[in-house]
Design goal:
396 residues, 16 helices, disordered N terminus, EC 2.3.-.-, transmembrane, membrane
Length: 396
């Protein structure tokens, strides 16, 4: 980052807020893979103790991949917000992005429930369809139908709030933004003693599901994006940020209690996200914007929605639910689930998510004419799409 004096002496540079950020798309796949690994471990698919120990060591904190998604969502939506975009257009665009895939997986989950003769409460199904389930603290309700869709319920709350808060964020003084960057992780930390005020049966819901609580991560990303948009962000480069994240992950998985690692990982994720975005804006090397990783990141939303339903359905159908697979069969089955989920995600992205978003979403406001076209490598991330846009700007 340039100093204030250097920035004052240099000719005005175009605001980077409209630069493409393909590295963040690639990183989305890493977060989705962490969640997949966590679920594969908790389902005890691998019975061989040595193999299971490796999965547990690598993916024990994989649930925090959702934390990454929430921080990334706030960052990308503030970064990509354009002048003249109305609230209604923003809300319509977000619905068009996430609802088609959600609807398909909601119907698929109900079909699976019918196949296995599972009881389904109509009220719970309706809550899930409308993405209201994260507000319901009753055990089982917030994980109803397609269990992972609780995070979409949180995202809908974030989407509702952002257009209302964005004008305040744009006018906030730098000191206020930096105060929020420090305060939000501390608030995440404070949730753990605060949960003692909640009935014990609802504490998991309060700390892990409740949308206003999970919005702290969203706003952390949003505030960082505003600082970077103004050229005020000060953070480590991508290599240093990655080392910090890996060190934090290893330490958190081995020695740090959950009360602390949620906060530490939120900070580590933020450093990686901002460093990757800065690398793209400044045309610096980044391992996360290769074509394969960008594609994987583009289908990561569909992959996230489909993977648990695939694993649970196949394991129940085969009679292997909860028994685990001995020897090399366990890792082979996990790899098979990964491949099948990825194929289904690619189909969903190609034939549901992309065409319906193009049909249902309103056009975005034009970019300001003063902002030149970004570097070729960035624009290539959107190559092959009829509208020429990379999906990096979508939070999921």
């Amino acid at each position: 980052m340039t100093s204030t004096a250097d920035a004052a002496a240099a000719p005005p540079a175009p605001a980077p807020a409209f630069a493409r950020l393909p590295s963040l798309t690639g990183l989305r796949w890493i977060a989705a893979l962490l969640v997949f690994g966590f679920h594969a471990g908790t389902m005890r698919i691998i019975a061989e103790p040595d193999f299971k120990a490796v999965v547990d060591a690598v993916f024990s904190l994989g649930l925090s991949g959702v934390q990454f998604f929430f921080i990334l969502s706030g960052f990308v939506l503030v970064w990509s917000a354009r002048p003249g975009d109305s609230r209604r257009a923003f809300w319509r665009r977000r619905v068009a992005k996430i609802y088609p895939n959600h609807l398909v997986l909601w119907a698929a989950a109900l079909l699976v429930a019918w196949w296995f003769a599972d009881p389904v409460l109509p009220a719970a199904a309706l809550e899930n369809l409308l993405l209201l389930q994260a507000w319901d603290p009753r055990p089982g309700w917030f994980y109803s139908i397609n269990t992972v869709s609780w995070s979409l319920s949180c995202e809908f709350f974030f989407y509702l709030c952002l257009p209302l808060a964005l004008p305040l964020l744009r006018r906030a003084r730098p000191a206020v933004l930096w105060t929020l960057i420090v305060a939000l992780p501390l608030l995440i930390l404070a949730l753990w003693p605060a949960q003692q005020l909640v009935p014990e049966v609802s504490r998991w819901w309060f700390t892990q599901i409740f949308p206003p609580v999970r919005s702290l991560e969203f706003w952390l990303g949003a505030v960082a994006a505003e600082l970077m948009r103004r050229g005020l962000w000060r953070g480590p480069g991508l290599t240093t940020a990655t080392v910090i994240f890996v060190a934090t992950w290893v330490a958190a998985s081995q020695w740090i209690r959950a009360e602390l690692w949620t906060t530490l990982l939120a900070v580590a994720y933020l450093l990686v996200i901002t460093a990757a975005a800065d690398a793209d804006v400044r045309d610096r090397r980044s391992p996360w914007r290769s074509r394969p990783l960008v594609w994987l990141g583009e289908v990561s939303f569909a992959f996230y929605l489909v993977h648990v339903l695939v694993m649970t359905s196949v394991l129940r159908w085969s009679g292997d639910w909860g028994t685990g697979f001995q020897g090399w069969r366990g890792p082979a089955v996990v790899l098979g689930f990964l491949v099948v989920s990825l194929i289904l995600a690619g189909l969903l992205h190609r034939y549901v998510e992309t065409p319906l978003m193009r049909r249902l979403a309103p056009r975005r406001p034009a970019r300001p004419s003063a902002v030149p076209r970004q570097r070729t490598a960035d624009t290539e991330a959107g190559a092959g799409k009829p509208d020429g846009r990379s999906t990096y700007a979508d939070s999921r």
